[in-house]
Each structure stands twice: as C-alpha cells, then as structure tokens.
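Here is one chain, start to finish.
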Amino acid sequence: MANVALRSPSEKVGGLFYFGRMLDKIRLHAKGELPSDYHANLGTGFDEKCVKFLRVDYDELVECVKQGGSDDEILDWCCAVGRKPTEDDIYVWNEFMRKRGWNDDVSEMVVRRKAEAGMIDRSDIQTSFQFIDADEGRLPKPG
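Its structure:
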C-alpha cells in the first residue's frame, strides 16, 4: 500500500501520536481520494481509540474536519468538546499507541498483516506503527 498521502502514525499533533494521521484519512476520504483499502477502518481501530481518548464523537469530528481548520485548531475543538488530556495522559496514550501490537492482544494481527503483505521475514516490524510505516514505504527493509 505504499505511496499513500498519509502521515506516519508516529507524527505528533499537539503532542499526540496518531491524531494527524486520522485527520489525513478524514480529509482524503471527504475529497474521494482515500484508497478503498482504508475505508473499512474509518472510525474504527486506532481512529476509535483516539476519539474515545479525546471523548469526542467520530462523526462530529468528521464534520468539524470538513469545515476546515488546521490540525491544531481541530485538536483545540476536540479538547473543548471532549476533554483536554494532561501531560501524563498524553504520555500514557503515546506509549500505549507506540507499542500497540508488541506482545499484546493485537500481536497476532500484526503477524497476519505482515504475512499478507509479504513481510513475514521482517523481524524489525513488531508493532502496528512499524507495520503501517513499512507498508506505506516509510520503513525501508534493513540491510
């Protein structure tokens, strides 16, 4: 799935991992430019975890994004409508997200997706973020 105009889940907006990627997906989908492979996960998976963390409704977030605004403005909206996470909340969120797929309940999914993508030999890919970055061409094969 390389060459997708989505930022890495490791890129931060307002200190938060993943939030910017979710906004990218919403914006691309609204313009009809999000590849169909991504449609099934809109509002679910990491998107769902992110909106639950911020305590906002995904559909309301989509409408906010469609109205325009910068990433920071949209995050400010989330903090006003939902909650404003503390520094400690953000630290826990980022560590949880960064390690998702490594020795947890989605580890088998990471292994399955690696196999489906022909990357089963990639021992450097142990987390969901690493898989996403490798699948989209941001994590080159070592060596």
